[in-house]
Amino acid sequence: MKDQIRLSGSFKIATGILIGIGLVAFIAGFITDPDRTWANYLLNNYYFLMLALGAAFFIALQHISQAGWSAAFMRVGEAMAGYIPVAAIFFLLIIFGIHSLYEWSHPDAAAHDELIAHKIPYLNVPFFYIRMILYFALWILMIWLIRKASLRADQEGGLHWFHKSEHYSKILIFILAVTVSLSAVDWIKSIDVHWFSTLFALKNFVASFYHGVAILVLIVFLLHSKGYFEFLSGYHLHDFSRYIFMLAIVWGYFWFTQFMLIWYGNIPEETVYYVSRWGVGWKTLFFAEIVINWFIPFAVLLPTRTSRSKPVIFSVVILLIIGHYIDLYMQIIPGTTGMLQFGFIEAGTFLGFAGLFALTTGYWLSKAPLIPKNHPYLGESLEHHF
Amino acid sequence: MSSSHLIGVFEDESGLVKAVEEIREKDLKIEEVFTPYPVHEVIHAMGTKSKLQVFAYFYGLFGALAVLAFLYWTSVIDWPINYGGKPFNSFPSFIIITIILTIFIVTVSSLATFSGRAKLWPGKQHKIYDLRATDDKFVIVVSKDKTDPEKLSTIQGIMKAHGAVEIREEEA
User: Fold this and answer.
1) Domain membership flag for residue A185
2) Most distant pair of Cα atoms in chain B: their distance
3) Which residue among A210, A261, A345, B48 has the highest number of C-beta atoms inside a 10 angstrom radius?
């Protein structure tokens, strides 16, 4: 079985070009429009961090539920989670653009704004950084432990490391539940510092799981087309699409719940968020977001036949890449630049981060055999049927 | 109604599935298979296709549209009341009721369809060929009336070859 990945030269060149485009877009952006560039920097960094966290949550979930079918795909999730340290570096660099992004970070913001003054004990620059470092430290530690357990199991076999990863996964899930929610509030929601929503963090948590799984499926498909995972059957595809289908519903549920509660409550400090996303042009994106992220996956993956078809799932996943971008675009851009624009800066930063994410994931995939060979449920995963 | 049956009892599902597959390959008819828990391979091997999902889909479509129409009729046409300045046709607030009632309608009508199709109703005395099929045995039932008498021995042979622990004929 072909299970050792070697990064081909063309892959390295392709990702290198993408990162180059990103750098050019970034430098050009800094000269022409720093505010807009920082907003895109945050957007794309958070975009790919969410994918990594979603993948980490996915593998943790497979470990604690002792899922059999997914045992062969664990390395893909581990490799995606390997992007977290890279994202950490980029997040720490936000210190240079913090004033472009967050209104509360201005030293005089509290003086003439009662609401910000009230939130300053939590939302201040030093504490913001302490929390950020704490989140990343916890994530990297737990991902490293799970990865180590998985690699040690490859060498030593037995059930010891299997139980160990389950144990780590329990801790990771608990950590993720708290930190992903808090980090979404810190990094994204605090852009709209005057806005209140209790569902925001949960919605982003689900979005991260949802789109993380979608990208995991995409990577599995890409590897499959290169000749890896030759055991991939309709049953695996069905389980993957059930994951996407189920998470589409959960995502749509939280998206709608947040909207409906605010619409129904009709309190000015809550509705302001949607008012600024209801203008000319924004309204199209607003509806595109729910159609792409909920309606299309839901409708397309409903029948059994389409949910076992690789081209169909592939198209849905490609669509979800756009859907995830729109989701974050709607959360970040209105509060920062407030201008609906998509040009070289937007496209370039996205491509740059995408290249970096692909390179990091590829690097981690190439560091270990693709199939965890001593996983106790490996046989069940290879022969998966129902 | 009197009928006679050939009953094969298996210890495990893999033997059962193989026997079902082989009997069906020979174009012979199996009346029914009983297992203590759902075995998906048996459904595949029996080649039965269920249309219940299609029915459920249309029940859902009908349910959602019917509930939305009902809500529109009550709150816009028949008895419009101004709640907190909201428009009469408050579509977002209809959604939750629509979801819940759609699930309810789909569940109840699918259950009714399934029961009707499977000829099940409360208090029905069902023919149980082997009580152990509710415990730890897997049972294949072949109708003797609908099968060529000389083919019966073939079926018996297939059952035996795949590890049937007991094969008996029952007249009822």
Assistant:
1) yes
2) 80
3) A210
Cα B162 from Cα B137, distance rounded (Å): 14
Amino acid at B64: A
| CATH 3.30.70 is the classification of domain B4-49+126-171 | yes
Q: Which tokens belong to A22? A: 């990103």
Q: Is A167 exposed, middle or buried (0-12, 13-18, 19+ CB in 10 A)?
A: middle
Question: Taking the CA of residue B148 as centre, how many other CA atoms within 13 Å lie in the half-sphere pointing to its CB?
Answer: 7
Query: Which of A260, A303, A304 faces B92 most closely, judged by CB atoms?
Result: A260
Hey, what amino acid is at A173?
I
With contacts defined as CB-CB under 8 Å, which chain B residues touch A385? 40-41
Containing domain of residue A100, as a range?
17-382
> Is A386 within 8 Å of B57 when comparing Cβ atoms?
no
Which pair of structure tokens corresponds to residue B171? Answer: 């007249």
Question: What pLDDT does residue B42 have?
Answer: 86
The answer, yes or no, to whether residue A197 has pLDDT greater than 50, is: yes
| A104, part of any domain | yes
**The pLDDT of residue A374 is above 90:** no
Structure tokens belonging to residue B16: 């059962």
The Cα–Cα gap between B119 and A179 comes to 53
| Neighbouring residues of A289: CB distance < 8 A, sequence distance ≥ 6 | A255, A323, A326, A327, A330
**What's the mean pLDDT in A251-256?**
95
What angle, 0 to 180 degrees and rounded to 10, lies between the N-to-C axes of helices A234-265 and B91-117?
140
Contact A260 B95 (CB under 8 A): yes
User: Where along chain B do its domains lie?
Assistant: 4-49+126-171, 52-117
Per residue in A37-63, pLDDT (tens digit) is 999 999 999 999 999 999 999 999 999
Q: How confident is the model at residue A79 (pLDDT cuts 50, 70, 90)?
A: very high
- Percent of chain B beyond pLDDT 70? 98
Burial of B79 (0-12, 13-18, 19+ CB in 10 A): exposed
What is the Cα–Cα distance from A44 to A50, expressed in whole angstroms?
10
Nearest CA in chain B to A267: B84
Give the integer Cα–Cα distance in Å for A257 and A282.
20
Contacts of A92 (CB under 8 A, 6+ apart): A129, A132, A133
Q: What ipTM was estimated for this complex?
A: 0.80
- The total number of structural domains that make up chain A: 1
| pLDDT exceeds 90 at position A176 | yes
Q: Is residue A11 part of a domain?
A: no
Beta carbons within 8 Å of A113's beta carbon, 6+ residues apart: none
Mean pLDDT for all residues in chain A: 92
> Could you give the CA distance from residue A17 to residue A21 in angstroms, rounded to a whole number?
6
Rounded Cα gap, residues B8 and B35, in angstroms: 12
Chain A residues whose beta carbon lies within 8 Å of the beta carbon of residue B84: 266
